[in-house]
Amino acid sequence: MNPSMLNQARELKTKLDKAQKELSNTTVEASSGKGAVKVSITGQQKLQSIKISPQVINPDKAEVLEELVLKAVSDAIAKSQKVAAKCLGGIKFPGLT
User: What is the 3-state secondary structure (H, E, C) of 47-91?
Assistant: First the structure.
């Protein structure tokens, strides 16, 4: 491997490490049911918390709560993926871009 390629690889690793750290320190939130279910997730798509309002807990209608949790988690993941794409979007991969 030539020195130029090694330098490019080191620079890329530094940029990726920085982006990963930034993503791990970034938290996004999403909610559903007018705020009845709230989800926090990192930029690395790791769930941090799920908060459920007691008003939506009804044993006879568990499927409603399931849908609210699923929607909030899905929205949080989508937001986190957008943050990650924005963060990693500026990194140029030598030989691929």
Answer: EEEEEECHHHCCHHHHHHHHHHHHHHHHHHHHHHHHHHHHHHHCC
